[in-house]
Write a structure and sequence with these properties.
The chain has about 350 residues and is mainly beta. The protein contains three helices and 28 strands.
Amino acid sequence: MKKILLSFIALCCTLVVGAQSTDQISAILQTDDGTPEGKTTVYYGQDALKSACNAAEDGSVITLSSGVFNSPGTIKKSITIHGIGWEKYEDGVLPTTIGGLDFQTGDDETSLHNIVIEGVYVNSTINVRQTDGMIVRKSRFNGFNVSGNNAKNIIVTQCYGDAVSCGNYDITGLTFTNCYLTGRVTNVKVGSLVIFDHCILTYSYSYNWNDYSHSRATYTNSIITHSGGTTDIITAGATAKYCVFVKDGLNANVLSENNWFSVDVNSIFSDGGTGVTYSTERTFALTEESQSEYVGSDNKPVGINDWVKIPAIPYVKNLDATVEGTDLKVNYDAGVGSTNPPTD
């Protein structure tokens, strides 16, 4: 508890400063040094994340302020990275933006474990390799790329993302759940276990491209749209169960079970939006009628359920910290409210 309290106080200080000046964006590194509270180090500037990653050990936690961070380069440690969110808040607090994340060990053994990424906008690609145990949640990324064998037990949840590439490698567990994905799904190797569950996939053209290795995954309880042909929404070798499609029919070699075709997605959502077009305010919750009609394999409505984009750690404003003797007194306003789209 003491370690959590100290890190939260440090987070308060750095988030407030970070919201006022990009020169003071910060990364807080927490490392277990054998003491009850652990060791806490604060780094500043756009290379703060890189400095924290270089000093981190397996199991370290890095907490980032708002602001834009340079890519830390290749990360060869099992760490946790927390940000304050991937969208701009209504009161002007900016998201945590990172220029790219690359988790690779450089060998063929599975050596990275229990990685956590939460509340960040990766303005490039998240690369993973030789990773057993990874959670990416409440974040945004421009690409998610598996670049080596032995990637397993990876979960991406409550995220907004673009393209997903599996590199034609052996993947024994990559799951996207409750995500909004706008790009292609490519190079899923035969025998790999790649699942898209309760997602909305909105790539604008056919998922079939060059050969049938593309989009060869399992799609369940999802809403899938595109503006290409009718039968190549997902390609041969894929599985689709309990999914809503805006087109009629699938490739003959797709395992299809209990799907809905030619669905007018302009009329199935209750959040006031049209079709699957993204906006910050949208929840993509189905209307009561649609919830009864489009029921998934788990008895939940298809598509995104209970999309929560705000990370667990709140952002902080109006911090007033004073020292009285041996006591540190902190007053602050913590925000967990609405967001606006990130600004470039």
